[in-house]
Amino acid sequence: MIGIPLMVKGKAIGVIGLFCPKSVEAGRIQQERLDFLTTIASQVAIAIDNVKLYQDLEQKVTELRRLQGQLIQTEKLSAIGELVSGVAHEINNPLTSVVGFTQLLLETTENPRDREFLEKIFSEAMSCSEIIRNLLTFARRHPAEKSYNNINDIIRKALELKRYQLETDGVEIIENLSDSIPPIWVDPHQMQQVFFNIIHNAHQALLEKKKLSTSPLRLTIASESRNGLVSISFHDTGQGILPDVLPKVFEPFFTTKEVGVGTGLGLSISYGIVKEHGGEILIENLFGEGVTFIVTFPINGQGRDRRVAEGAKGGSYAGRRILIVDDSNAALEMCTYILRSEGFRVEGVESGRAALERLRSEDYDLILTDLGIADMPGLAFHDALLKEYPVMAEKILFLAEERINPEARRLLEERKVEILYRPFGMTALKEAVYRSLITSLKA
Fold first, then answer.
1. Cα 378 to Cα 417: distance, rounded to the nearest angstrom
2. How many CB atoms lie within 10 A of CB 237?
3. What angle do CA 172, 176, 181 make, to 5 degrees?
4. Both 341 and 422 in a single domain?
5. How far is CA 327 from CA 103, 331, 354, in A?
6. What is the pLDDT of residues 89-108, one digit of tens each?
7. What's the rounded Cα separation, in Å, for the pair 443 and 437?
8. Residues 99, 129: contact at Cβ < 8 Å?
9. Can you tell me the distance from the alpha carbon of 195 to that of 151, in angstroms, rounded to the nearest whole number?
10. Tell me, what DSSP letter sits at residue 74?
11. Residues paired with 34 in a beta bridge
12. Are 318 and 344 in contact (CB under 8 A)?
């Protein structure tokens, strides 16, 4: 037997083995035949190498096309995001006034018919606010607005959105929600979106299982608190996730659904939201038997701050002086009325320069200022305030639109100032003011 190496660029990639006739003794093969065989082996090696190069090129072209498609989709989403943010900016200002004045009227109106109309106005205004919030979340422009919430209530709200469809498709729903979980510091709207996305994916998986089997379709949702963590699990009895698909489930735009059925954004957005809340999403997968999504959050220690803020509402802050700076007359009037009803001494001006002039002769415990006042937009007013009155550094509450450029957001976070996003209602305004006063009076 004769072995001829397959050489490419000085590197052996294989060998050709030839059986020789018995008449050919070892070492007696003619050189010209050996050269011929070597030439053939060289051509075979080049052909094999070209096949490998072609396969590599094909994979790279496929990957390039995939990335190109993602880039096009990203650009589309970016354009939609810009449009959504612009619309939200124009709507949030008047919507804040509608919500606030409606709440004020509800507190003073006794006529049942008038109250019914006002409650409808308030409900529709909040629906409009929710639409804007969902659009901004889709466009990834909505900052988390965290508060203390019962996590089980958020789970139930998300489940109610899918309950009818699940039950219609024959899915048994089992709820094992613990009553011992303390309130959790989360954005309830973002968390509802996370839970809804997971439930929706479970529903899709169960529908696929229904096509292949008559075994029971079941979705089990459980919650518990243990070792400083809150854990929420969603287990479905679907087919599970293919092993080669599992590492990709949180990738943006990745989907196993048909075209037009899924965008591949649901789980990636959910993953980002949970991470921003300091949590984790884990997957326990048994292919062929089902999958469990587990969302965990830390039980943080901000409860004390909340209790302090609640305790502050008993009148101990009555008489504190607040200056409101806002060039929207309706918003200025609404905030002034609400805060005066809490016992604060409130004054308002419509420009940054007027506010600085007022500060030269008056002292205030807190300043509420619109981040977008016309004469001193962005952080210009804050910069001027810190320059002339550094003692006011921590005595400011910004009223801001949802659309803040990343640099301004970073600077605001560095300066550790409180921000209240529009549209806001009466309760949100009061809570933000009390929190800011606690910080202000400690400064």
1. 13
2. 22
3. 150
4. yes
5. 22, 8, 11
6. 678 778 888 888 888 888 88
7. 10
8. yes
9. 10
10. H
11. none
12. yes
Q: Given this model, what pLDDT does residue 136 score?
A: 66
The pLDDT value recorded for residue 382 is 86
| Inside any domain, residue 210 | yes
Tell me the H-state helices in 315-369. Answer: 329-341, 352-359
**pLDDT on residue 308:** 42
* pLDDT number for residue 176: 94
Q: Under a CB-based contact definition with an 8 Å cutoff, are residues 148 and 185 in contact?
A: yes
For residue 73, being part of any structural domain is answered with: no
Give the integer Cα–Cα distance in Å for 422 and 91: 10
Q: Is the same domain home to 152 and 294?
A: yes
Rg (CA), the chain: 32
Count up the domains in the chain and report the number. Answer: 4
Residue 302 has a pLDDT of 44
Shared-domain flag, residues 240 and 109: no
In the DSSP assignment, the letter for residue 314 is: G
Q: How far is 156 from 292, CA to CA, in rounded Å?
A: 18
- Of 239, 163, 253, 162, nearest to 205 by C-alpha is 239
Domain end marker among 269, 298, 327: 298
* Residues lower than pLDDT 70 in the chain: 1, 19-32, 69-82, 84-86, 89, 131, 133-144, 251-266, 300-316, 402-406, 442-443
344's CB contacts (< 8 A; 6+ apart) are: 317, 318, 319, 320, 321, 322, 433
Phi and psi for 419 in degrees, rounded to 5? -130, 135
Beta bridge partners of 5: 15
Looking at the structure, tell me whether residues 261 and 122 fall in a common domain: no
User: In percent, how much of the chain has pLDDT > 70?
Assistant: 79
Contact in structure between 372 and 326 (CB atoms under 8 Å): no
Q: Which domain holds residue 243?
A: 148-298
The C-alpha atoms of residue 271 and residue 258 are separated, in whole angstroms, by 22
pTM score of the predicted model:
0.47
**What DSSP state is assigned to residue 24?**
S
Among residues 270, 298, 326, the one where a domain terminates is 298
Q: Which residue has the tokens 């048909």?
A: 258
Taking only the tens place, the pLDDT of each residue in 53-63 is 888 888 888 88
The whole-angstrom separation of Cα 289 and Cα 355 is 66
Cα(436)–Cα(366) distance, rounded to whole angstroms? 8
